[in-house]
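Work Package 3 (structural annotation) set out to generate three-dimensional models for the target panel prioritized at the project kickoff. During this period the team completed the workflow that converts sequence records into C-alpha cells, so that structures can be stored uniformly alongside our sequence database. As a representative example, we reproduce one entry of 279 residues exactly as it appears in the project archive.
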Amino acid sequence: MPEGHTLHRLAHQVTEVFGGRPVRVTSPQGRFAEAAALLDGAVLEDAEAWGKHVFIRFGERFVHVHLGLYGTFDVHAPVAAVPDPVGQVRMRLVRGDGTAYADLRGATTCALVTRAERDAVVARIGPDPLRADAEPDRAWRRISRSSAPIGGLLMDQTVLAGVGNVYRAEVLFRHRIDPLRPGRTLRVGQWRAMWEDLVELMADGVRKGRIDTVRPEHTPEAMGRPPREDDHGGEVYVYRRHGQPCLVCGRAVRTAVLGGRNLFWCTRCQPAFRSRAGR
C-alpha cells in the first residue's frame, strides 16, 4: 500500500496539472459512470491528501480516492493526444485542452462525496505528519493510553495517518524503540521526537519520490557499501533487510508478523523493553 508521501505527491500533481481548469470526467470501466457524468465539464479546483486518502475538489463535491493495496492513479502531462483507455480504468480525467490526462485503476475507494461526508472521513483518521494543521497530541493521547505494541499503533490510521510499513520500521529504528513495546510505556519526549522525525522524513519523501531514512554516516558513500537494490528503492536501515547485517551494529535484522504485516527491527539497537515493575 502506498505510504502517505506518495499520496501527497499525487495530490500536488493533480492540482498542478488540472487545478483551476475544466476537465472531462469519464468512467471507461463503468463503475463510476453516474458520478462522472455529474462532474463532466466542471472545474477541478484542487486536490489534497489526508493520510492515505485523496480528495479532488469540484466546488462542494469531492472525489474521494483511496488506492488500497493495488490501486494506481497515473497522471500523464503533457501529451500530444489522449490515447484510448487500457485496462480497467475506473475514472479518467482529461484536461479541457486535451494536453493531459489521468487514469485511476484498482482503487479501494472512488466515490463522489459531499463536504460533510469528506469531513466525516477526515474526522476518523489520525493526524498526518505531512499536514501543517496536524495535531500530534491527538495521536499521543491514544498511544499513551494503549497497551498495544507501538509498532501496531503507528500503522493504525485512526491513530496516525499516512505512516506505512516502511516509515513505521524506520522511525522506530532511528529512535531505538522496540516495536513490541506497549504504547503506554513511551515517554512523551520519545513520541515528540518520533513525530518530528516523521515530519522531516516524510517531507523528504514528497520531494524525492522515494524513502531515504539513513543518516549521512550510513549512506553507501560514507560506508563504502553498494547501494541498496530493491524495487521499493531508497536507503533504509531495516525495512526488507531480514537476515542482513544492521548498518549500525552488524547484528542480523529480524522480522516477524504484527497485525498482518511484516515487521523489521534490530534486536540490539532496539532492545526489548523491560518495565521497572518487572525488574
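The chain has a mean pLDDT of 96.
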